Amino acid sequence: MIWLVHPAKEQVNQLEEQISRQYMFANFLLRDTVEDLLAWNFSQPLTDADEDYLKALSNELLYTTDLIFSGDVVHHEWRSRMNDIQGYLSNYMSGTSLSEEDVADINQSLQATRFITMDFNDYVDNTYDFYNAMHDEQHEMVERVKSRLASKY
Fold first, then answer.
1. Residues 81-131 pLDDT 10s
2. What does the alpha-carbon distance between residue 98 and residue 93 come to, in Å, rounded to a whole number?
3. C-alpha to C-alpha distance for 113 and 148, rounded to whole angstroms
């Protein structure tokens, strides 16, 4: 028996594979950027000398989160937390001092994201599975992400 694959289905499979690779590479970039941001002391005022560096980190974070959360992904709370981080960074870079609660929240979200990116490497079996991990409500990463966001660091 010969099985025929519908050309449209094959194109969908190829597109999902390309998107999976995008997620995989963005995951590595996100982890590196988050680790750099975790090293930052948001309790201290931003100096002119550090402004360009933090702006570059903020742009990297925006770029990678746009790659990861483009489309209809299932990790809504994580996306919301990443948007919160962007808001804190924007305020901080505009000269607004962050409260102790804001600093604790940004560090909490960054730590959770750091562990989420590690979990993606540990729990996602192959490149193609990144797509499922981002779009399938039944994928084990949905619960891992929720657990990481709920944990205190």
1. 999 999 999 999 999 999 999 999 999 999 999 999 999 999 887 888 899
2. 10
3. 8
The two three-digit tokens of residue 152, written as one number: 């205190």
- The Cα 87–Cα 102 span in angstroms is 10
Tokens coding 107: 């560090």
- Which DSSP letter does residue 99 get? P
Q: Are 139 and 132 in contact (CB under 8 A)?
A: yes
Locate 142 and state its tokens: 């949905």
Report d(CA 122, CA 116) in Å as an integer: 10
* Structure-block tokens of residue 82: 């990443």
Segment holding 29, helix H or strand E: helix 7-38
